[in-house]
Design a protein that fits this description.
The chain is of the alpha+beta class. It folds into 2 domains: 2-118, Ubiquitin-like (UB roll) (Roll), CATH 3.10.20.30; 121-248, Orthogonal Bundle (Fumarate Reductase Iron-sulfur Protein, Chain B, domain 2). It contains 9 helices and 7 strands; from the N terminus they run E-E-H-E-E-H-E-E-E-H-H-H-H-H-H-H. Strand 1 (2-8) and strand 2 form a beta hairpin. The longest helix is centred in the last third of the chain and has 18 residues, at 231-248. The structure holds iron/sulfur cluster (SF4) and FE2/S2 (inorganic) cluster (FES).
């Protein structure tokens, strides 16, 4: 299988072609290891867990942000695993992928440091800004906080986020407006807002033009999320709640 891989030293960028022998069960990350070990040891990419847990291997594969460690080469070859995403970074109208090669590029909407490694500082700054931690009041219980199963159910969907930034890279609004806090940070904010243990009024933290209100509901975030987190649903619910609050005043 031919791999067309984006290369950059931060100043100059180009593409390199590599032939990688196919093996059953091979992931895109396996293929990148093959390239690095056997063909070009200067190729740079990020990874850690190799099991879809750490979120560090997200990259643009065939124009869709995905985790390299859980993307099977075989399925891409067969045209499977292709979420219908719109706008940048999806294929533009009339643009086609080369059927004989697999395209690997860094996540869009982030500055490239080297090859497939991007600088995600902005993503994590926005995440920190929206205070992603539990704020309780009063004396903590002797053991753990108890929660009813129905209180955990909705919250769990958002807890699954592994901060891979695939949603941020897939979001056309983030592509146009670098100040948009992005789907992951907003989903996390909503996750603490609905946590019955949390005492801080949080929705207001993103009640501005670059927060909840910037989303245009393209829903790319949900389509590319490797953990099925639905940031678009969180944003819709937060907006409805804020609107009701303002109408009730
Ligand atoms: S919401 Fe999904 S796509 Fe976005 S950072 Fe979390 S795990 Fe990744
Ligand atoms: S290497 Fe950790 S998610 Fe892919």
């Amino acid at each position: 299988m031919k791999f067309k891989v984006f290369r950059s030293n931060g100043e100059k960028s180009y593409y390199d072609d590599f032939n990688v022998p196919h093996e059953p069960g091979q992931t895109v990350l396996d293929a990148l290891f093959y390239i690095q070990e056997k063909l070009d040891d200067s190729l740079a990419f990020r990874y850690s867990c190799r099991g879809a847990v750490c979120g560090s291997c997200a990259m643009l594969i065939n124009k869709v942000p995905r985790l390299a460690c859980r993307t099977q080469v075989e399925r891409l070859k067969e045209g499977e695993d292709n979420p219908d995403i719109k706008g940048y970074p999806a294929l533009k109208e009339g643009e086609k992928l080369n059927e004989n090669s697999l395209l690997v590029e860094p996540l869009p909407h982030f500055p490239v440091i080297k090859d497939l490694i991007v600088d995600t500082e902005k993503f994590f700054e926005y995440y920190q800004e929206l205070k992603p931690c539990l704020k309780t009041e009063g004396k903590p219980p002797e053991k753990e906080y108890f929660m009813e199963p129905e209180d955990v159910k909705e919250l769990e969907e958002y807890t699954n986020c592994i901060l891979c930034a695939a949603c941020f890279a897939a979001c056309p609004v983030d592509g146009e407006n670098p100040d948009f806090r992005g789907p992951a940070a907003l989903a996390k904010l909503y996750r603490f807002h609905i946590d019955v243990r949390d005492q801080e009024d949080r929705l207001e933290l993103a009640d501005h033009k670059d927060g909840w209100w910037a989303c245009e509901f393209h829903t790319n975030c949900n389509k590319v999320c490797p953990k099925n987190v639905p940031p678009n649903v969180a944003i819709g619910k937060a907006r409805a709640e804020l609107k009701k609050k303002k109408d009730d005043k």
